[in-house]
TrEMBL record:
Name of the protein in its database record: Enamine deaminase RidA, house cleaning of reactive enamine intermediates, YjgF/YER057c/UK114 family
Pfam family, one: Ribonuc_L-PSP
Upper lineage: Bacteria, Pseudomonadati, Pseudomonadota, Alphaproteobacteria, Hyphomicrobiales
Taxonomy, superkingdom: Bacteria
SUPFAM superfamilies: YjgF-like
InterPro entries tied to this protein: RutC-like_sf, YjgF/YER057c/UK114
Record organism: Faunimonas pinastri
Length: 129
């Protein structure tokens, strides 16, 4: 049986809400919904492009800590708060995932705080070597 390993981004929200940024289990890494929060400044940028970039970079850092990379991502769910955010989000997402091309879903929905415009959830798979 594979050991379950918890990855933290250091977010104060993880302990408060009772979740891990990512969970590694065997050949998989499951990354929790990640918004565009900038943990270095503890702020949320206003621009959708900056939020997308921050969120994907946080996902990449979590994957790296678990022994994975963005190239191992096989499934993503994206959430934006308005239809007008889809185009700008896609442009940034394409710079990260254009060659990887994971199975993806884009949802338009309200997020938990009004300053949040984007969220990503990812699953990575890396076969045991």
């Amino acid at each position: 049986m594979s050991e379950r390993r918890l990855i933290s981004s250091g977010s104060p929200f993880e302990k408060e809400a009772g979740y891990s940024r990512a969970v590694v289990l065997g050949d998989f890494c499951f990354v929790a919904g990640t918004t565009g929060y900038d943990y270095s400044t503890m702020t949320m940028p206003d621009a959708i492009e900056d939020q997308v970039r921050n969120a994907v970079n946080t996902v990449a850092k979590s994957l790296d800590e678990g022994g994975f990379s963005l190239s191992d991502v096989v499934r993503v769910n994206y959430i934006v708060t308005h239809n007008e955010h889809v185009g700008p989000a896609f442009k940034v997402l394409g710079t990260f995932f254009g060659d990887i091309r994971p199975a993806a879903t884009m949802i338009v929905a309200e997020l938990v705080r009004p300053d949040m415009k984007f969220e990503i959830e990812a699953t990575a798979y890396r076969p045991s070597r």
